[in-house]
Amino acid sequence: MILSSKLIVDFQVKDRKNRQGYFFVVSGPSGVGKNTLLNYALERVRGIYYLPSITTRPMRPGEAQGFPYFFVSKADFEAMITQGAFLEWKQIHSGDYYGTHLPTIVYALENGYDIITDMDVLGCVEVMERFPENVVPIFIAPPNMEELRQRLAGREKDTGVIARRLERVDMEMGYVDRYRHVIVNDDLERAGKELVRILEQYSQRE
Where would one find coiled-coil regions in this protein (predicted)? Predict the structure, then answer.
């Protein structure tokens, strides 16, 4: 199934706003808690749609089509690249592809739907350049490097992987000033409430 023009989000008319949609982009170092905060906020804020990335990696236990990713074959992904279906895409060291679906973004923003996704800092820069009037960039920062190192060690046993992810942190933190909002994730409840407040600040506008 090639998704070059088909939407990957099931938008509901009741959530349509009488304005252009907002595109919330959440970035931050690996292990900082982006997905945890996203889940916290989306359980509490209505009318904002999660935009899953499209990937060729295998689906894991507990995952489903569309959450946390939309899963496709490599052949389909490469066909979509040729057809210009991605706002941005990358191929990681495992050989798997990840991409952000452009037709869904365009449809949402033009039709008054608010969407949110997590994206690395380089991808976020591309989004800000493409949709400067719609993007609300939000950076999730760790309280300190030692805390981030401990979080990574708690979920990843491969020390080489941990080291590579920590090497990226200085680069990622170098983009903080490009973000409109910065949340320090030192406490889930506090940081989650701050993210909810930011999302509601925009989504409740008509």
Answer: none
Residue 108 CA to its chain's centroid (Å) = 15
Contacts of residues 194-198 at CB distance under 8 Å and 24 or more positions apart, as own/partner, are 195/26, 195/37, 195/38, 195/40, 195/41, 195/138, 196/40, 196/41, 196/44, 196/45, 198/136, 198/138
Domains of the chain with bracketed CATH: 17-203 (3.40.50.300)
Is the whole-model pTM more than 0.85? yes
Tokens of 170: 């200085």
Cis peptide before 52 (omega within 30 of 0): no
What is the rounded average pLDDT for all residues in the chain?
90
Helix H, strand E, coil C: the string for 69-124 is: EEECCHHHHHHHHHCCCEEEEEECCCCCEEEEEHHHHHHHHHCCCEEEEECCHHHH
Strand partners, 140: 183
Whether the Cβ atoms of residue 88 and residue 123 lie closer than 8 Å to each other: yes
Decide if pLDDT at 21 tops 80.
yes
Q: How many CB atoms lie within 10 A of CB 87?
A: 20
Q: Which two tokens stand for residue 83?
A: 């057809």
pLDDT in tens, 134-147: 999 999 999 887 77
